[in-house]
Amino acid sequence: MLEQLTEAINSTGLLNLTPGNIVMWAIAFVLMYLAIKKGIEPLLLVPISFGIFAANFPLTGLMDEGGLFYMFFHNGIQNELIPPLIFLGLGAMTDFGPCIANPKTILLGAAAQLGVYGAFFTALLFGFSVPEAATIGIIGGADGPTTIYLSANLAPHLMGAVSVAAYSYMALVPLIIPPVARLLTTPKERAMVMKQMRPVSKGEKVIFPILATIVIVILVPKSAPLMAMFMLGNLFMESGVVQRLTDVSRNELMNIVTIFLGVGVGATMSAENFLRPQTIYIFILGVLAFAFAVAGGILIAKLMNLFSKNKVNPLIGAAGVSAVPMSARVVHTLGSQANPQNYLLMHAMGPNVAGVIGTAVAAGAFISAIH
């Protein structure tokens, strides 16, 4: 009888619960609080936090081969299915009109990727391997699906930490961009009013995703999974003839894959994987990456103004990070504070959506060079 009782107790999780599991529960509860109470990226942080919580119960087998969360992670993320589907939905919600109307704003989206490469080299100095440094650097693009996609290819063991860092900093855009932008611009520059953008025809909007796919995928073939789906979603929307596909891409499908993505990412954050000094370094480097990205976009905008007749407000360079449309809104707010007549939102959307492309291209370049 005593032996049976001992076996019954041992079959529960009580005796196998570790301090690390409890710490991870605390982290999960903090993320839940931020998502539910503070509204910080709730669509991702709620499933991520619950994935962390559930995966840190002992003896569940959730992340063992064949387990429920393992299937989410292996089939959806490790096999690179879910991030491209997220990009399909993003494409169906993205208006490339500002990029088409003012093509040089695409350069500002590219310039913001300086943060990615700055953090990459800094991570190497911290002792991370090349694949790990690339995965950490991509946080500077402030694009969660791209971060997850790259980590699945290069450093799966860092996926939980870099994903939480990326989504956390996306939510902290209103706190990170303003001090960097104010440091690098004068009040006169922030008050600069830009000329109204020209109207963009439907034909231009339909042709753009096709041409963009040709140019980007030929130059960086490894970006094809993300870019092809991103541009397909955009073509759905701009063609105007497949409204049902557009609606499904940006609503039902997006919501479903977001659940699987969040739970799958959270489930990778076991105590053994997450509670390491590396995790602290990743969060520090993530902040640096984001700050470098904001600075890169602003400085390139100022450089462009030295050689251009049609000046741009340097603030819009800060929107080159991929947090769409939050960074564009923050830039607009900064401009209107400097000059109430300043309306920068649509101008900032150009580098903002270009930043999504730039980050995906940077991820493809890393995979080509390292994999």
UniProtKB/TrEMBL annotation:
The lineage of its organism: Bacteria, Bacillati, Bacillota, Clostridia, Eubacteriales. It comes from Desulfofundulus thermobenzoicus. It comes from the Bacteria. PANTHER family: OXALOACETATE DECARBOXYLASE BETA CHAIN 2. One of its GO terms (biological process) is sodium ion transport. One of its GO terms (molecular function) is lyase activity. Its main location: membrane. This is Sodium ion-translocating decarboxylase subunit beta. Keywords: Cell membrane, Ion transport, Membrane, Sodium, Sodium transport, Translocase, Transmembrane, Transmembrane helix, Transport. InterPro entries: OadB_MmdB. The chain crosses the membrane at residues 20-36, 43-61, 81-100, 107-128, 166-185, 206-233, 253-271, 280-300, 343-370.
